[in-house]
Amino acid sequence: MTSEVNIPGAAPSVPLLRRWETASLGSVWRRPGDWFTPAAEALAEALEGRLDTAPSAYRLGQARAMAGVGITEAIDDMAVLFRAAGFEAAPIRSIRALCEGWTEGEATQRVVPVMNDPESGLGSMDYLVARLGELYGAVERDGGAVSTSYALVLVDVAAADTDPWHRMARNAAIGQSLQDAYGKGHPMARLADGLYAVLIARGPDMGRGVADLRDHISRRAVQMRVGNLMRQPPRVWIETLPDLHDYAVELVESLQR
Question: Highest taxon of the source (predicted)?
Answer without folding.
Answer: Bacteria
